[in-house]
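Quick question, first post here. What does this chain look like in 3D?
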Amino acid sequence: MISKHVRTFLLPLLSIATIATLPTATLHAQRNYGVIAKWTVGGEGGWDYLAVDPAAPHLFLTHGARVEIVDTASGKVIGAITGLKGTHGVVFDDADKYGYISDGRANEVVVFDRQSFEKVGAIPAGTNPDGMVFDPFSKTVWAFNGRSMNATVIDTAAQKAIATIALPGKPEFPVSDGAGFVYVNIEDKNELVKLDVAEKKIVATWPLEGLESPTGQAIDVAGKRLFSVCDGGKMAVTDATTGKRLATPTIGDGPDAAGYDAKSKLAFSSNGDGTLTIVDAGKPGYPVLQTVKTQRGARTMAFDAANGRVYLVTADFGPAPAATAENPRPRPAVLPGSFSVLVVGTK
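> Answer (accepted):
Ran it through. Tokens below.
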């Protein structure tokens, strides 16, 4: 029988041993996330998606008629791709050579060199190319055209469009599973579409019942799960094989992007109300692990798998102008020079 004094001594040791044997994902999830840095980029104009180069510590920010490149080690702007018209998204090939920008106002996809940041080509797309994804299975870039409601498929070896696929409505953000399928949210129909990359056609359409305006999306490739963020403060978790709804966790208001951390099994939703929702996708029921206060307007994000951090972009706003019959819901003006990156990480 162990005496009281021995038990008192052993309990702290047992606690330490228990913690030491916990899975890394559990330990990571228990740490608090918060804004750990703010990098001022400056300039003027609106913004959309941002993306991390998987082969270099470079963060690409679509910013009006240009794309800013930020060094994620220092937070400093190290370059810009200019001469564009209205940028939306950036994706990268898996040869670590080229990047692709959807220039919505030019109706084209711009190709650039990832070392020099110089433009090397432009490929015609549909009307207003917006969300994009690189598919490693077929070595193609898929540009989803918001106004023409179709997808332009680009062969990255030939650097030319090889197919146009009609869609049932306005596409938003796509993801690839790297195994032959691309998935995209259809915002105005509240649907999720599955496309076969070899056949270049739709193979399934899944209604997101009870949800509105699905926009951002992330994928858990190993677990075959999709995370679609929607208006009304909801995230749809969908089985990527069957289309079955697995859960509908509550998120913040006005989301536009999502991310997934495969190491820690966490799903993220960046919300325009100034919050980042973190969902624990490693637990039954998909509970919300944390709601991080960010900044108003920070509704697009990129997850950096190299360091486990989330980057968001926003700016400071002035007062909204008076409503008119032509513009009943005017947006507040962005204060010049206030465009910034928020860095969210564990404290």
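Residues 4-21 form the longest helix (18 residues).
The longest strand covers residues 33-40.
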